[in-house]
Fold this protein.
Amino acid sequence: MIFKYIKSDFLGNVSTQMLGTGVAQLLPLLMMPILTRLYSEEEFGVYSTFLAYSAVLIVAVSARYQVAILLPKQDEDALKVFKLSNIITSVTSLFLLLISLVIYLGFKNPLNQNGLIFLIPIYVFFFGLWQSYFNLSIRFKKFKVTAISKIVQSIGYIGISCIIGLIFTPLGLVLGKAAGVLSSLMFIIFKLKPKKHSFSGTQLKEAALKYIDYPKFNLIPALLDTLSLQALIILIGYYYTDLELGYFGLANICISAPLALIGVAYRDVFYQRITSLINDNQIRHAKSFFLKSSAILGLLGVSIFFILFFYGADLFSFVFGLKWSTSGKFASILAFSLVFRLVVSPLSSILYATGKVKIVSLWQSIYFVTTFSTLFIAILIYKSDIYALLKVYVLHEVVLYMLYYYLQYNSINKLIK
C-alpha cells in the first residue's frame, strides 16, 4: 500500500510542487547570509512590517473569490470566477492606492517614509492577480508551471534585493519582493495562456452569487486570521525595540520557510485531490487520504522541530553572522508551534472542500480574539519581555491548532455517517 501511494500521481504532483517550492525557498535562504550583511536589523524590521500589512490586505483584495476557482465542475464556470476575481482585485487595489494617497498627505505614519505606503497597494495588486492565475494553473494541473513560477519569484526577489543592497539599502528588500512577484506573474501568464472568454455582466453576477459564501462568510474571518498570524510582528513593532523586531523578522522568515516548502506545496495539491474525491463521492478514500496526509506532515514537522529547538542559536550565528544569534533563540522557541501549524494549515482546505466555510470563519474569529487577548495580557498586564511573550504565543498556537485539526477531521468524518 505504501509503495502504491508513493507511485501515485498525487505524490508526484506534490513532489513537483515541493521541488519548485523547495528551490524557491532555498534560493533566498542561501542568499540570506549575504542579505543579512547588506541590510541591518532595523531594515529587516521594515521589511517584516511591509510584509505584515501587505499580507492582511492580500486576503481581501479579491474578496476571496480566488479560492473558489478550483470548485466548479465545468472549466467555463471556473473561468467566470477567475475573471471575477481579477476584476475585484483591480478595483480593490485602485481603492487602496487612493487610501494610501490620503494617508500620505493627511497623516503622519512610519510607512510614509521613502514612499513605502505606496508600494503596499502595488504589491497587493501584483500578488492578487498572481493568486488567481496560480489557482487556475492548479485547477488545470499545471503543477510544473506553478512550481517554476515560485522559483522565478525567488530569483527576482534575491536579484533585485542584492543589487539595490549594494547601491542603497532602505527599501531594497521591499522592492526585491515586489519585483519577484511581478516576474512570477508574467511567467505564469505566458505559460498558462488562458483562452479569452467574453462573459457578460449577468454571467459574472451569477458566478458571484453562486460563491457568495466566500466573501460573505470567509472574508472578514480570513482577515482576522491573517491579522492574528501577523499579530507578533505588529505588536513587537509597537511595544518593543526596532532591534528586537529585526531579530524576530529574520526568525520569522526562516520559520516560514518549511511552512512554505512543505505546507504550501502540500496544500495546493491536497486541495485539488480532496475536492476531486469528495465530488466523486469517494468519502472513505477522502478520509483515509486526510489521515495519511496528517501522518506524513507530522513526521516532517517533528524532524524540523528537533533541528531548530536544539541547534537554532548556533545555526543562525554560523549562517547569518554572530549578531543574529538572538534570531536563532527566537526560532528555537517558535519551533514547537511550527509542528502543529505544519500539520494543520495545509489540511485546512478540507473544510472548503466539504462546504464548511462557516466553521472556518468561526475558528478564525476565535483565533483572532484569543491571539490578541493573550498577547495584550502578556504585554500590558504582565509586562513580559520578548522571550516570555514568544512562549505564551506558542502555547496559544498549540491549543488553537489542535482545535482546528479536530474540526477538520470531524468535517470529513460526518460525511461518512
